[in-house]
Amino acid sequence: MFEVFDKKRSRFASVGVVSSMPGELIDSIWFIIDLDLKGVVPLNNLIAFELLNHDGKVTMHFSQENSEVEMDIDLPFPFSYELPQEVYAYDDGKQQTILLPSETKY
What is the superkingdom listed in this entry's lineage (predicted)? Predict the structure, then answer.
């Protein structure tokens, strides 16, 4: 059994994510996982982040299947309707990837 979202494993973002989100938002997802979720919430190997508009800034809404725990994290970055509505973070035990829902095969 492996520990999900261990920050010592390789981390990536898919081509779809890199082409649709600024790097600081991608980095923010890893920071949220490491600083706000890990050790606080039991994490599945697939977690979701919905990108919301909160007064012109990005709010990331965390959720995962089979869990009632949800969390909103406000970020200082400007919101754009060109951002994806949702992204996933997936840990396969060897590497971790942020990807768009359309890029999943799970």
Answer: Bacteria
